[in-house]
Amino acid sequence: MRKNIVAGNWKMNMNQEQTAQLIADLKEAMPSNDASVMIAPTFVNLAKAVELTEGTNIEVIAQNMHFEASGAYTGEISADMLKSIGIQTVILGHSERRAYFGETDEILAKKVKAALDNGMQVVFCFGEELDERKSGEHFNVVESQLKNALFELPASAWSQIVLAYEPVWAIGTGETASADQAQEMHAFIRKTIAAQYSNEVADQVSVLYGGSVKPNNASEIFSKPDVDGGLIGGASLNAEDFSGIAVAFS
Ligand code: PGA
């Protein structure tokens, strides 16, 4: 059955000292409920974060990885490298990777395959831009992002996938999709997966919402039947806010 998840994407924030401090604060602040908690510090702080969260229910995950196993890819990190320091989950397809680093659906399909081939779990991000929503294209955009990057996968691979619907216009802007807009899209996502695979696959996949989730809007968004939690950017950099979002599941 699908899980409730609250995942913090720290992006390019927090040096090692700040990482240690935030983890110490989270250990104090996080509620214990049925939600899985994930945090995604930067690459250089992953090993330290794994060490500092040992014995807690906080899973440390990566923000990105390359699809090749090794070789002449300066500046890149492979699945095997992540696994060797205890990372089992990777975020792929974040809109900032797509917009600033040229990640296409085709590249993402390769990255997803590489992660799954290595037995990792993927938090796969996708979502429409503002002009696409305004012109009523948002369902088509989301459908094609899913199709191009994920629909070649066998049904069995979907137990390793978590989806994160993140409308680009709501990321870091303070503008959140309404709970009803999130529910509408999440239901569409599940329907699209059911049509391609089966109701069983669609029902078991966790679908997170991301985009300006804060303590004051989390419970309404998470209360929707097809929303299984959130991928949190800005508010994950502060233990009070992140724990304030996690209690939305209590
Ligand atoms: P935000 O970021 O919560 O700061 O809007 C969400 C994300 O980019 O995953």
Present the secondary structure layout.
Elements: E1 5-9, H1 16-29, E2 36-40, H2 46-53, E3 58-60, H3 79-84, E4 89-92, H4 95-100, H5 105-117, E5 121-126, H6 130-134, H7 138-150, E6 161-165, H8 179-196, H9 199-204, E7 206-210, H10 215-222, E8 229-232, H11 239-246
Parallel strand pairs: 1-2, 1-8, 2-3, 4-5, 5-6, 6-7, 7-8
Helix pairs in contact: 1-2, 1-11, 5-7, 10-11
This protein binds 2-phosphoglycolic acid.
Report on the architecture of this protein.
The protein is of the alpha/beta class and 250 residues long. Helix content is 42%, strand content 15%. The protein is built from eleven helices and eight strands. Strands 3-2-1-8-7-6-5-4 form an eight-stranded parallel sheet. The protein is globular. It starts with a strand and ends with a helix. The mean pLDDT is 96. The structure holds 2-phosphoglycolic acid. The site of 2-phosphoglycolic acid has 13 residues, from β8. 2-phosphoglycolic acid binds next to β8.
